[in-house]
Automatic annotation (TrEMBL):
It comes from Lentinula guzmanii. It comes from the Eukaryota. SUPFAM superfamilies: Undecaprenyl diphosphate synthase (SSF64005). Its EC number is 2.5.1.-. It is an enzyme of class 2 (transferase). It holds the Pfam family Prenyltransf. Gene3D superfamilies: Decaprenyl diphosphate synthase-like (3.40.1180.10). GO terms for biological process: polyprenol biosynthetic process. Keywords: Transferase. This is Alkyl transferase. Belongs to the UPP synthase family. GO terms for molecular function: ditrans,polycis-polyprenyl diphosphate synthase [(2E,6E)-farnesyl diphosphate specific] activity.
Amino acid sequence: MDGNRRYAKLRGHKAVWGHWKGATTWLNLIDWWSYFNSSEKQEVKYMTLWALSKENLQRNPEELAGLFAVLTVTFRSIAFTASIHRSQVRVRFIGALTGLPQHVLGAIDMLERETENYSRAVMLVAVGYGGRDEVLRAVQDVLDSGEDLNEESVSRKTFCSKLSIPPVDLIIRTSESRTSGFMLWDTQSTELHFLHDKLWPELTARDCIHAIESFASRERRGGK
């Protein structure tokens, strides 16, 4: 979800204003996802939103305070979003959550508890997430368990694997043409869809549908 700060700057506002606009897009996306799954023959069962990277935690204190406030309100809003419950979406969090403000952790805990009995679809929210950090954690888990360190053992320790979620099929990114290390281990055969001319707050339902249609039209051979 890239481009909140640029969106705000282009309109003469502070970064936090852009983050609030980005949160609105996130809530809209949940509604679009729910509608798509109820109206199409094939469901998109898993969706991951990268809300905050590990690198983002190095931003200035004023912006971080505003960003944490946005995340707290957004998580609590999602917990009471009708489409989440109507579509029975379970929300799970991944990333380095230790050290986040208590009000953010409280909102995370509430959202996970409110949806813990659902299983029709899963929304992962990446907070304090870094691709290299995930791989290092997976390797350390293997070493700590006493298993042999190999491709299979590391694959069993990624966030996706631990939550019984398949590797990533499609990455959609606004405004940039890079993945920034998103789910490094589980994106070996991932398709990419870049929206160069859109900042995250400008994303529309049509953009999402086009990305899915583009993905569906591709021949995926997994390197074979």
